[in-house]
Amino acid sequence: MEDATEGTHGCGNTSEPEGDRCSENDFGPSILGTKDYWEDAYQKELETFKDIGDVGEIWFGEESMSRVLRWMDKVKIPENAAILDIGTGNGAFLVELAKHGYRNLTAIDYSPASVELARNVLQAEDLTDITVKEMDFLNCQGELKDFDVCIDKGTFDAISLNPHDTEEGKKLYVQALKDALKDKGFFAVTSCNWTKEQLLDRFSEGFEFVQELPTPSFQFGGRTGNSVTALIFKRLC
């Protein structure tokens, strides 16, 4: 079900065709990188969910969840694995993970409206044993640790677009990820702002690249590229 029109939910940049490497500064700061933007967006989605039961937009589309789940099946991630959803949004991925049999799920988001929305969505699905916390991943004070798998669909992108202390935020993200994962734990990241090469460079210290997951491709001017990048890393001991 790969679809070349897979949603990017307002991403600031798309990956260059294969063979090209973008600089770290080829897109500027954006309102998409601010907490106020996401709080307002999820407050509206929360009101909509309460009115008509619509969970709202799924970041990168449903296929973005399916490809990570297929990878988890392939590498036989156990159902009792400790899994962290970084920047859970409306909690849609938590629902899919739970339906897939995973039962040790934790999610965080720095938006109070997102947390309330995710809890409402989970309650509607009768999934009451999933932990959802209001927490800024960059300032989690060591509260997150010993996870087997961390999943990010767009949160690192948003951090990269923050108008304030962008470079510091990216460094804090990498350190928080190291702290949250067990040794040899996996990190699945989906991005529409960063190329494979840029993500490999960003997570070069403390992580081992495992594989790239297939994403929709496009052709332009006789060259092929991808608008979304999905990579798997492993935390080094």
TrEMBL record:
It is found in: Cytoplasm; Nucleus. Its EC number is 2.1.1.-. It catalyses: L-lysyl-[protein] + 3 S-adenosyl-L-methionine = N(6),N(6),N(6)-trimethyl-L-lysyl-[protein] + 3 S-adenosyl-L-homocysteine + 3 H(+). Keywords: Cytoplasm, Methyltransferase, Nucleus, S-adenosyl-L-methionine, Transferase. It comes from Seriola dumerili. Protein-lysine methyltransferase that selectively catalyzes the trimethylation of EEF1A at 'Lys-318'. One of its GO terms (biological process) is methylation. GO terms for cellular component: cytoplasm; nucleus. One of its GO terms (molecular function) is protein-lysine N-methyltransferase activity. This is EEF1A lysine methyltransferase 2. Belongs to the class I-like SAM-binding methyltransferase superfamily. EFM4 family. The keyword Transferase applies. Residues 1-26 are annotated as: Disordered. It comes from the Eukaryota. Residues 79-213 form the Methyltransferase domain. HAMAP family: Methyltr_EFM4.
